[in-house]
């Protein structure tokens, strides 16, 4: 069986796993409020990631981790967009393109929670993060206060738009999420092996989305 056929077989199994009893929907990777992120959306992001030569090299042999990183960035993107709206801030297309260009020029500057995602998604999410940071900084007297307000803005966004993640990718808990800005990987060995067919291990390799307490941006 070829690498692609193995990948597609695993992807097909991912597609049939329901999120919860109340929101069973085949082919769903996650919900952020009413926004549905499909398994197909995630795979398109993965394909875009590997089309970039620099990113493809870093993600070689780590497709399952890239897939989870792509989904993580998509979730962050949706939550940060909601937080920006709640704060009455705006993000222009020019700002999004500038963030993409910055990450493209310096991939090493991509924050841990956005690693493993295509540049377009990482850049847009980074632009939203910058807007949140700018908004909360205006009303803060210290970096500590600004960081607390940043977390509160994301917490409110997650309350307005609850996040549900397909168990094949991991799980979402707002308390732990705010510590790393990353979804929690599944601890089920069978699930991990399915998500990354043929991999000997998943730890500490290039291309792996790393836990990071730094706010994306």
Task: Characterise this structure.
Helix 2 crosses helix 4, helix 4 packs parallel to helix 6 and helix 5 packs across helix 6 (119-138). Residues 3-17 and 190-213 have low confidence and may be disordered. The protein contains 9 helices and 3 strands. The chain has one domain (3-17, 41-195). Helices cover 56% and strands 6% of the residues. A hairpin with a 2-residue loop joins strand 1 (28-32) and strand 2 (35-38). It has a 3-stranded antiparallel sheet.
How is the secondary structure organized here?
Layout: H1 3-15, E1 28-32, E2 35-38, H2 39-51, H3 53-58, H4 63-86, H5 93-105, H6 119-138, H7 143-160, E3 163-165, H8 174-180, H9 189-195
Helix pairs in contact: 2-4, 4-6, 4-7, 5-6, 6-7
How many domains in all? Answer: 1
* Range of strand content: 5-15%
Note the overall shape: globular
Outline the biggest β-sheet: 3 strands, antiparallel
Distance between the termini: 40 Å
Note the run of SSEs as H and E: HEEHHHHHHEHH
Any idea what the radius of gyration is?
17 Å
Overall mean confidence score, pLDDT: 80
Query: So how many helices?
Result: 9
Strand segment tally = 3
Unreliable stretches: 3-17, 190-213
Estimate percent helicity: 55-70%
Read across the widest sheet, the strand sequence of neighbours is 2-1-3
Structural class by helix and strand composition: mainly alpha
Summarize the structure.
The protein is mainly α.
């Amino acid at each position: 069986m070829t690498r692609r056929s193995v990948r597609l077989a695993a992807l097909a199994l991912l597609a049939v796993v329901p999120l919860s009893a109340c929101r069973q929907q085949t082919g769903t990777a996650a919900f952020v409020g009413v926004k549905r992120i499909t398994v197909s959306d995630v795979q398109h992001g993965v394909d875009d990631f590997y089309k970039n030569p620099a990113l493809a090299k870093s993600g070689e042999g780590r497709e399952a981790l890239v897939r989870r990183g792509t989904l993580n960035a998509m979730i962050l993107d949706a939550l940060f967009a909601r937080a920006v709206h709640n704060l009455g801030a705006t993000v222009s297309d020019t700002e999004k393109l500038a963030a993409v260009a910055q990450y493209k020029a310096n991939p090493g500057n991509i924050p841990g929670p956005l690693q493993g995602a295509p540049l377009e998604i990482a850049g847009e999410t980074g632009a939203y993060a910058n807007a949140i940071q700018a908004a909360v900084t205006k009303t803060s007297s210290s970096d500590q206060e600004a960081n607390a307000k940043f977390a509160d803005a994301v917490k409110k966004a997650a309350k307005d738009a609850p996040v549900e993640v397909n168990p094949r990718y991991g799980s979402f808990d707002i308390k732990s999420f705010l510590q790393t800005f990353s979804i929690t990987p599944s601890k089920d060995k069978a699930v991990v092996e399915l998500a990354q067919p043929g991999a000997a291990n998943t730890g500490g390799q290039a291309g792996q989305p790393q836990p990071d307490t730094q706010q994306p941006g």
